[in-house]
Amino acid sequence: MTDRNLLLDIARHYGTPAYVYDLQDVRERYLHLKEHLTGLPADVHYAVKANAHPEILRTLREMGSGADCVSVQEVERVLEAGFAPEKVLYTPSCPSEEELRRAFELGVRVHIGALEYLPWVAEHYPGRPIGLRLNPDVRIEGNVKIATAHAGSKFGIPWTLNKDLMKMLRKLPLRVTGLHVHIGSDVHSWQDLARGVDFLTDIAGAFPDLTYLDFGSGLKVPYRKSEREIDLAAYADHIRQRMKALPQLRIVLEPGKFLVARSGVFLMQVTTVKRTPFKTFAGVNTGFNHMIRPMYYDAYHAIENLSNPGGKEQVYDVVGNLCEEDTFARARRMPEVRKGDILALHNAGAYGYVMASHYNLRPLPKEIIVDGNKIYEA
Ligand SMILES: Cc1ncc(COP(=O)(O)O)c(C=O)c1O
């Protein structure tokens, strides 16, 4: 999403703050991923938590994607968007029995992530195919907030409890047709993700009813110019090698940001340029109530001054309008920022709007769709 004039037109016409999503780019990302999975019996289940906009869901459904949901509300959203229940996975964290019941009734595939749920599932849904989310205790480099498969993490059935698990599976009427692991998000090295693949392929033989292995996602996308996308070709080759011994199984990947991060831009307007003896602040008409990644994950997002691209470069802290510390970028060199300028925060399609709130009672940002020549608010 890089057409400066188009983004400026959108900002003028629809106002800011606003997310803009390019559906054609989402299609390209999906095809790019599928190309690398050629020859593998692979199903892509888009991780809806990254961006649940109905137009994004419709686009990915039309491309052939399934969905991975983490809440019943996401399940309902994707069913409304026309996904067939059998193409929907539900991988919740600490669900209530009510939520599990709803998911089973809607006919989607439920992934269970704690031993404690299994007796209840066996009692209420005996013989119903389920998946198990496992925790192999894999530690990875990177942001600890998005590492999800180490022993200290709340996610998944700890594999250290495998004897208890196997005992339950022998005793109870449970049918485990899938195994799931999600190493983390934004994983830099394919070798780290491969550890999840090795783990599941090593233990698959212990589960006689298996039909699929779900390797989650974590597929990294570049946020800085110096960063590279995860080496998908190497990762896919590794999966191919490991799956040779398990030709009867399908595999699942659940990418979120890989499919939608690049396709989204967050537009904001400069309300004030404030100079102090120490620094210059570019204050904008939004905050972490609308885009929390820089503050919560210390995530870097490129910020472009759309309305003054040729300005003389200066250094700014780009800050929000909340009564909190909410800094989008520190000491960022960018073309001169003036009151009224329109800034574009790039790579905003994933974990942007979905994490937005009404904090400070401000309304949510708009969402604008670009699909070729068509531009609309939806
Ligand atoms: C269970 C599960 N699957 C898939 C994803 C998507 O991860 P990513 O956006 O890194 O592709 C997540 C995100 O944390 C997740 O929790």
Care to describe what's here?
The relative contact order is 0.17. The chain has 2 domains: 4-19 and 261-377, Lyase, Ornithine Decarboxylase, Chain A, domain 1, CATH 2.40.37.10; 52-255, TIM Barrel (Alpha-Beta Barrel), CATH 3.20.20.10. The chain is of the alpha/beta class and 378 residues long. β4, α5 and β5 form a beta-alpha-beta unit. Strands 1, 11, 12, 13, 14, 15, 16, 17 and 18 form a 9-stranded mixed sheet that branches. An 8-stranded parallel beta barrel has the order 2-3-4-5-6-8-9-10. The longest helix is centred in the N-terminal third of the chain and has 14 residues, at 23-36. It is built from 11 helices and 18 strands. The model has no long low-confidence stretch (mean pLDDT 96). α2 packs parallel to α3 (54-63) and α8 packs parallel to α9. The protein binds pyridoxal-5'-phosphate. Pyridoxal-5'-phosphate is lined by residues 47, 49-50, 68, 91, 182, 185-186, 216-219, 254-258, 350.
Topology:
Elements: H1 4-14, E1 18-22, H2 23-36, E2 42-47, H3 54-63, E3 66-69, H4 72-80, E4 88-90, H5 97-106, E5 109-112, H6 118-124, E6 129-135, E7 157-158, H7 162-171, E8 175-180, H8 190-203, E9 212-214, H9 232-243, E10 250-253, H10 257-260, E11 264-275, E12 280-284, H11 293-296, E13 303-305, E14 313-319, E15 327-335, E16 342-345, E17 366-371, E18 374-377
Parallel strand pairs: 1-17, 2-3, 2-10, 3-4, 4-5, 5-6, 6-7, 6-8, 8-9, 9-10, 12-14
Antiparallel strand pairs: 1-11, 11-12, 11-16, 13-16, 14-15, 17-18
Helix pairs in contact: 2-3, 8-9
The structure holds pyridoxal-5'-phosphate.
Beta-strand segment tally = 18
Number of domains: 2
CATH third-tier fold name of the largest domain: TIM Barrel
Report strand %: 15-25%
CATH architecture grouping of the largest domain: Alpha-Beta Barrel
Going by CATH, what is the homologous superfamily of the largest domain? Alanine racemase
